[in-house]
Queue: 2 jobs
Job 1
Amino acid sequence: MRPTFMGFESSKAALFASQKALDIVGHNLSNMSSEGYTRQRTDQVAIDTYAYKNRISTSSVNCTGMGCTVEGISQVRDERLDTAFRNSYSETSYYSKSNDMFSEIETILSEIDEGVDGNGYGLSWGIEQMYKSLEDFSTNVNISADASIFADSVTNVTNMLNRLADSLNESCDAYKAELETEVADLNTILRDIATLNEEISDIIFTNSYTEQYGPNEFIDKRNVLLDQLSAFGKVHVENNKDGTIDVTLNGHECVNGKIADAVEYLNKNNGTVTLNWKSDGTKADTDSGILKASADIINGRGNYITNSNESTVRGFRYYQDCLDTFARNLTDVLNNTLPAEYDENGKVIAYKKLVGESDISDGEIVVYTDRLVSAENIAISDDFFEDSSYMLYDEKSSDNTYFLEMVGKLSTNKIPFVNGPETFTGTFQEYISECAGKIGSDVYYANYRYEACEQYSNEMLDSRDNVTGVSESEETVSMLTYNRAFQAAAKMMTTMDEMLDVIINQVGALG
């Protein structure tokens, strides 16, 4: 025999289920604009008849119709879309960072062609002024004023090289400081994920949640952190039964349940940076994301790697080497063309030294012409700076042979520019164009890849939002559906009351 009040219990369960479903609809609508919020739904199932067998009868027919129950409140989320978006976002972040850094290098190096703020007075113009002033001087090598003009043009070029090298160094240092801040942000995210793991685990244990149904709002906070983490590299997530997750970043397990690892940033004496995991010392910038982009370009020396920390990317160190190669070739021309001393056979045994390496000695700037110069320290020699006629071997001689030779070296002669394994043969101005073309190519590629990756990431994000986001129209339909279900359950309750009234008050009267 069926229980007398089973119909009431069934209707009551339907009322409660509809009420809870309407509560969740309202919760969804109120969080339409909440960052990271995932749409929720009530998982409603029929009550299992076989759970209510009585001891006397094995038949389940009498207990059929116990109604429904809400198993839990789940999130509408697709882990495959999460993984696809995060993987694409790590690539997007890598090329976004690369594009920013290469663009800044391009802005700095644009001065070699375009000059400051595009005024045209760049390094290429400076070389032109050098050989043009030297051409003017070679027509009458006894006019000291023309020698002074040439000395000024040499000073202009050395100052340009100093400024370019300093700008590259300052930009690189700024990105090092930015990278250090990003590492601190990464470590904070890892600690926050571990903290949320602990909180979620405790809540599940104390509130009788299941592996499937947990504290959704805390899980949303954790998912937001995982999205942020994907900017630093490839993220892989493993779910645990206690509600915690294990997180792998660039192939390294950085969060194990309630324990978080950390990345250590080190600025080495050779100018490179290293990013290592604190737990085992392995490299943290191995796959993609902003960590790898920053380290690649800060440590980037192209094919001319001199230590294990450097990368094969054409970054700050590579373009600094390009400037140094230019400065050393210029030094070779200026310091090994004009004779300073001959032997008894008329053979040149020493040359005038017009430039050298500037350094501070006893609080004063001194230029050493016997040291290896760089773009950062090249300067006009003290002798040439103090007296421009120093470049003349004999002030009474009108021989301009060596001056014309220097004009050719500065303007038309093909000179080998050696930068590690790379060799470019051409004039000084052609080498400048070659360097400008390389950074232009790097910027173009990084920007092209960034735009392509960003488009794909946005598509993945839109696909995920279509699943996880709150749709006002869908929630409105759900609201009407659950409202009708509530009304139907209430009507069923009224009907059951009428039936019970017949049994109690009218059956006896009929007898």
Job 2
Amino acid sequence: MRFAIVRFPGTWSDRDTEHVLANVLGQEAEIVWHRETSLAGFDAVVLPGGFSYGDYLRCGAIARFSPIMEEVVRAAEDGLPVIGICNGFQVLCESGLLPGALIRNRSLRFRCEWTHLLREGEGSPWTAGIGKGEVLRIPISHGEGNYQADRATLDELEAAGRVVFRYCDERGEVTPESNPNGSARNIAGIRNEAGNVVGMMPHPERAGEELTGGADGNRIWQSLVETAAGVAV
């Protein structure tokens, strides 16, 4: 597959994502500058983590108006797989591709640590190869990862199976203690109605090699690749 990795001013996990996709998983990956206006030839889009535009005004709020985002929104609405990681999740919410918002961590501190994620929800090409109830170990690195939405939106996400990852302990138990940032209902990742767009705060690109602490993040990339190849169901 050929992945477009969008780089905004202030993005910093684009190279990590490129390394894992290209050097670890053997996929084609290209960093695309935010001023580009075409995604022609790409099979998937990654909005990586970082501090786009220095997080001024509101995380993701300025990046939402970068030229490339008009094409990302159009492509996502046409069914192209799109994933937003950390700051990328914030950009997806600001762009209206996903509901809710990411606000300051409950602790008011930047949190950089390993977390456990419970795979839940209905189908998505990004999670097709991960069984419901499986637990992944993937790190977070954010100051504003506290996912919030009004009760009606949260209820709708739950009822439609659109919560794909939830913070849990290593046994898969969803507890207050396993929630690193105060996110409503321990939500760590959600999808759109169609399932092709996923936003998540944890960083799968930081869990791509055992050398760096674990490779569970690769399950997400491999899910998409296998789905495209007709392997995953």
